[in-house]
């Protein structure tokens, strides 16, 4: 709750300051003329919670694209019309089904529309991906409208970008007179072009996701290990002797790690398997044991207390750890303060029988820790294994990993994650824009698509324009109500 309040305060503070600065500069006579001239030249404008930029400089670019291969563009945008009409039916069906199931109190497994709120259901680390994806989707959406308009001989007046609160977007200014003069079918090609381009973006991003391992194969290796992409500061594995970004992890103790799934499986196995020790000859145990001779008396051996077992090394040590074991001659549990690294370098064992060595009496020594703590050896890079003492979940949350291990040191370790995350956002947001924009609702593309469709289908059978306008208005009202119901339900679910 505190994080949400902070976000709201920062956003409101930014927009309030920007609006007050704009009003102040416009009210001062000495600088108002220069400021207004600057705003007019740059195309910038400030309003309540909105910043806009508008320019006609891209009109020639749109003109060239719209006049290139006219037959292909005609077929391309005609396909967009058929897809958009089909998407409109599917979107209306899905949104209607969600409303009906909600009022019937039927469980809905997945929300069709989910509002994205920074600090609520959008992590702060993902805001840059979200805003960039929205901007790219909006730009390509409007570029589709512009190219289709040029193809249908409708003048493009200008192009612009805007920032509304935290949501960036784009818009294209088309000549209203030219739009009204062309046929309904040509209008549909223009109105459906944006949604069509959103679908193409989502499909392309999905294909890139599927082909990503092959595309990155010349620069990264897969299936041999995982690479560290981030280490949480002040965590159990940070610091000079901890894990480093770019290091490859191959094993956790005796469990091999070839991908992130193996990493999770190894950690889960370590939580299930408590008794994992190492084989040490008894003579070596006595030689390495640095615990005081009178530290654990006979009474403590019979009834050891947990904190006394863990602290058999007198105090917390960075090099030594308390181990427990028993011998063949005696079932009595014994404790020894041993250097952790030399002890864990010995062969792994789970039972005393695993430590059979001819003519040498050996014991399987186990870390004397509580039920939740594990001693794990993390094999990373070319350095000695990192010894981790703690709960395996702490290790899981302390590092971020990737399956893509760079072949050369200068290749960025985060590049595959950036590409993958960006593509996932494009698939999700671009697909959501398709579902949202085709709904016959006020101020959306669906409103104009619906108007052109009514004119195309009913002009011959319903010659009265007022009746056609009534049918169009009724559809738009119902579509707007349907969308508002879904948005309300989504907000209710989000903050419930």
UniProtKB/TrEMBL annotation:
It is found in: Endomembrane system. It is a multi-pass membrane protein. GO terms for biological process: membrane protein intracellular domain proteolysis; regulation of response to endoplasmic reticulum stress. Keywords: Membrane, Transmembrane, Transmembrane helix. Its EC number is 3.4.24.85. The keyword Membrane applies. GO terms for molecular function: metalloendopeptidase activity. It catalyses: Cleaves several transcription factors that are type-2 transmembrane proteins within membrane-spanning domains. Known substrates include sterol regulatory element-binding protein (SREBP) -1, SREBP-2 and forms of the transcriptional activator ATF6. SREBP-2 is cleaved at the site 477-DRSRILL-|-CVLTFLCLSFNPLTSLLQWGGA-505. The residues Asn-Pro, 11 residues distal to the site of cleavage in the membrane-spanning domain, are important for cleavage by S2P endopeptidase. Replacement of either of these residues does not prevent cleavage, but there is no cleavage if both of these residues are replaced. CDD domains: cpPDZ_MBTPS2-like. The chain crosses the membrane at residues 6-25, 76-100, 127-144, 156-175, 195-217, 469-495. Residues 130-467 form the Peptidase M50 domain. It holds the Pfam family Peptidase_M50. GO terms for cellular component: cytoplasm; endomembrane system; membrane. InterPro entries: MBTPS2, PDZ_sf, Peptidase_M50. Belongs to the peptidase M50A family. Zinc metalloprotease that mediates intramembrane proteolysis of proteins such as ATF6, ATF6B, SREBF1/SREBP1 and SREBF2/SREBP2. Catalyzes the second step in the proteolytic activation of the sterol regulatory element-binding proteins (SREBPs) SREBF1/SREBP1 and SREBF2/SREBP2: cleaves SREBPs within the first transmembrane segment, thereby releasing the N-terminal segment with a portion of the transmembrane segment attached. Mature N-terminal SREBP fragments shuttle to the nucleus and activate gene transcription. This is Membrane-bound transcription factor site-2 protease. It comes from Elysia chlorotica (Eastern emerald elysia).
């Amino acid at each position: 709750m505190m994080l949400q309040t902070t976000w709201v305060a920062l956003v409101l503070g930014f927009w309030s300051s920007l609006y007050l600065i704009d009003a102040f500069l416009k009210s001062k006579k000495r600088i108002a003329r220069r400021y207004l001239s600057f705003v007019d030249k740059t195309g910038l404008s400030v309003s309540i919670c909105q910043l806009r930029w508008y320019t006609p400089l891209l009109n020639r670019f749109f003109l060239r694209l719209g006049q290139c291969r006219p037959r292909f563009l005609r077929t391309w945008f005609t396909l967009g019309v058929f897809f958009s009409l089909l998407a409109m039916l599917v979107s209306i069906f899905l949104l209607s089904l969600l409303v009906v199931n909600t009022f019937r109190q039927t469980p809905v497994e997945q929300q069709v529309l989910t509002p994205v709120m920074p600090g609520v259901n959008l992590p702060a680390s993902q805001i840059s991906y979200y805003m960039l994806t929205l901007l790219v989707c909006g730009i390509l959406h409007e570029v589709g409208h512009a190219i289709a308009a040029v193809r249908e001989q409708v003048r493009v007046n200008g192009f612009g970008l805007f920032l509304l609160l935290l949501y960036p977007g784009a818009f294209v200014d088309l000549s209203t007179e030219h739009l009204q003069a062309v046929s309904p079918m040509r209008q549909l090609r223009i109105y459906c072009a944006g949604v069509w381009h959103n679908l193409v973006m989502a499909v392309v991003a999905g294909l890139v996701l599927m082909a990503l391992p092959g595309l990155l194969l010349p620069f990264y290796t897969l299936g041999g290990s995982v690479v560290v992409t981030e280490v949480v500061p002040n965590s159990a594995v940070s610091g000079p002797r901890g894990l480093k970004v770019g290091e490859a992890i191959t094993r956790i103790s005796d469990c091999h790690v070839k991908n992130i799934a193996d990493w999770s499986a190894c950690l889960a196995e370590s939580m299930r398997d408590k008794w994992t020790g190492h084989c040490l000859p008894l003579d070596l145990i006595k030689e390495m044991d640095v615990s005081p001779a009178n530290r654990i008396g006979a009474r403590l051996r019979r009834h050891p207390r947990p904190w006394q077992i863990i602290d058999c090394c007198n105090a917390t040590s960075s090099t030594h750890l308390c181990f427990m074991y028993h011998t063949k001659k005696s079932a009595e549990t014994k404790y020894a303060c041993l250097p952790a690294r030399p002890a864990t370098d010995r062969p792994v064992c789970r039972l005393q029988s695993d430590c059979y060595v001819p003519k040498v009496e050996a014991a399987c020594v186990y870390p004397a820790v509580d039920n939740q703590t594990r001693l794990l050896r993390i094999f990373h890079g070319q350095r000695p294994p990192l010894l981790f003492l703690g709960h395996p979940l702490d290790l899981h949350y302390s590092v971020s990993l990737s399956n893509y291990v760079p072949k050369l040191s200068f290749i960025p370790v985060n590049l595959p994650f950036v590409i993958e995350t960006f593509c996932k956002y494009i698939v999700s947001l671009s697909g959501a824009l398709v579902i949202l924009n085709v709904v016959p609702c006020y101020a959306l593309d669906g409103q104009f698509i619906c108007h052109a469709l009514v004119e195309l289908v009913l002009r011959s059978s319903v010659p009265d324009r007022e009746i056609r306008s009534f049918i169009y208005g009724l559809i738009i009202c119902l579509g707007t109500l349907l969308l508002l119901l879904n948005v309300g339900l989504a907000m209710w679910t989000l903050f419930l």
